[in-house]
Amino acid sequence: MTPYDDEYPTCKRTFATLRIYSDAVSTPEITARLQLEPTDCFNKGDATGSRGLTRKFNGWFLSSESIVSSRDTRRHLDWLISKIGDKATEIARLHADRVDIDISCFWVYKGQGGPLISPPQMAALSALNIEVWWDVYYDHDSADASSCITEVGQNR
After folding, report:
1. Is 57 helix (H, G, I), strand (E, B) or coil?
2. What percent of the chain has pLDDT over 90?
3. Using one digit for the tens of pLDDT, what is the confidence trace for 35-46?
4. Is 5 within the bounds of a domain?
5. Which pairs with CB-CB distance under 8 Å and at least 24 residues apart come from 54-58?
6. Domain count along the chain
7. Res. 141 pLDDT band, cuts 50 70 90
8. Which of 48, 53, 108, 123 is deepest in the core (most CB within 10 A)?
9. For the CA atoms of the chain, what is the radius of gyration?
10. Is the pLDDT of residue 140 over 90?
């Protein structure tokens, strides 16, 4: 396996967020079931934005942002797995209640080469039936990122 690299040279910033959305299960109930405090949440009916709109569902989030300092997304996933890995029964019950659960990984790159996920992480998250996806951005200020984009454009 590829060794972890906390200074991941092609990453400017990364974090991972466990996201739980539900129309019926409230955020306090999710907190009680998982016995975990979220780093953020909102409730169905809460106001959002300045137009007087309201949230149509509940959202519960556990994020590694500002907690894990590594630029290797695997460290952030390890942190989340350490929080939820022993909660298979509770997560299965949430799935049974038609709650949407996933992990979103934020990734800002500054050169060629992307994030990794390890086989043990894949196994742990698969056992919990949790999908992982990346929200990827490039660093406009990085010379490496602009040259990477130029290279990609030239290869098409």
Report:
1. coil
2. 81
3. 999 999 999 999
4. no
5. 56/23, 57/21, 57/22, 57/23, 58/21, 58/22, 58/23, 58/25, 58/26, 58/27, 58/30
6. 1
7. confident
8. 108
9. 18
10. no
Write the DSSP string, 123-145: HHHHHTT-EEEEEEEE-TT-HHH
How far from the centroid of its chain's Cα atoms is residue 142's Cα?
24
Contact 105, 73 (CB under 8 A): yes
Return the structure tokens found at 145.
Answer: 């990122």
For residues 109 and 144, give the distance between their C-alpha atoms in angstroms, rounded to a whole number. Answer: 9
- The pTM for the full model equals 0.88
Q: Is 69 within a domain?
A: yes
36 part of a folded domain: yes
Is position 39 within any domain? yes
pLDDT for 142: 63
User: For residue 58, what are the domain limits?
Assistant: 11-155
The encoded tokens of residue 81 equal 């797995």
Q: How far apart are CA 91 and CA 112, in angstroms?
A: 36
Three-class SS state of 95: helix
Amino acid letter, residue 87: K
